[in-house]
Amino acid sequence: MNTPSNMFRLTTQRQIILEELSKVKTHPTANELYDMVRKRLPRIGLGTVYRNLELMAENGMILKLEVGGTQKRFDATTSDHYHIRCADCGKVDDIDVPVISNLINSAANATSYNILGHNIEFSGTCPDCQGSQMNTTAMEQ
Amino acid sequence: MNTPSNMFRLTTQRQIILEELSKVKTHPTANELYDMVRKRLPRIGLGTVYRNLELMAENGMILKLEVGGTQKRFDATTSDHYHIRCADCGKVDDIDVPVISNLINSAANATSYNILGHNIEFSGTCPDCQGSQMNTTAMEQ
DNA sequence: CTGCATGCAAACCGTTTGCATCCCC
DNA sequence: GGGGATGCAAACGGTTTGCATGCAG
Question: Does B30 touch chain A (CB under 8 A)?
């Protein structure tokens, strides 16, 4: 039912952005993706990357992750799942904790909001940062 | 054990910022708080508000909420609880859903991260926005 | 040929920071 | 009088946007 071609053209830029995003299991920021895409399309503009990520997110082709930290991150896996974010380096990974689908029922009873969904974000220290662990307040990437 | 006076001076600005934050059940952005505080301290600077919010968050006196949306929000209630965010107007409210404390155990089994905590953010449409509901893509405050 | 999409650069917005001054201890 | 805190304004970083050009249908 979702034929993207009805909604917008499938340009080279869009295809490559989506390909590069699908290629990685990390959840890159727009800038990281820009760098990845630029290796194949050196003349692409940052604005194009942002515009297309936004467009694809609106059409449910990808996920825009509103996780902690200053930058938004993008995810080619659109099925429901949770994330964990490294408190040291800011990296975001998938985490395989079962989705608690009845949370929205508990929520519905607890508020007068009309519930749309929920999201869980874990925080922790990633394996890479566990070694060099001297303080908790390292730089966020 | 946490005597803030050991850590930093309790200036008028800090007291009033904390008072104003404690006064509301919403979770104001730094700018909203700046406006609130300015009514009592007209010459206070935005930078002072940011610096003090940061400082108080570091000392566990308040919570810095890293919820969706572009702006950070602040919360004088430091005990564990979840939030719900209006998909239309961006407002953030507390939601009285019991904290799932054993989530971090499930998480620990599912990742090689060293788990520190978790957070749940619900999304929905707030009562105020339910009336004027014509599209889902309204402006974010 | 028409209009959507792009590249580029400037604008924007929230936040941070440098610096001179202020004020509490 | 000394050091942290403030007010102010400029800088910053991520994202958005306006505009002239390009290119696919």
Answer: no
Domain count, chain A: 2
Contact A63/B at CB under 8 A:
no
Q: By residue range, what is the domain housing residue A59? A: 1-79
The CATH number covering residue A7 comes to: 1.10.10.10
Give the pTM: 0.87
Looking at chain A, list the stretches that DSSP marks H as alpha helix, in order from N- to C-terminal side: 4-7, 12-23, 30-38, 46-58, 103-110, 127-131
Cβ neighbourhood burial of B130 (10 Å; 0-12, 13-18, 19+): middle
3-state secondary structure of B35: helix
Residues B61, B5, single domain; the answer is yes
Spatial contact of A77 and A116, defined as CB atoms under 8 Å apart: no
List pLDDT tens digits, range B86-125: 998 999 999 999 999 999 999 999 999 999 999 999 999 9
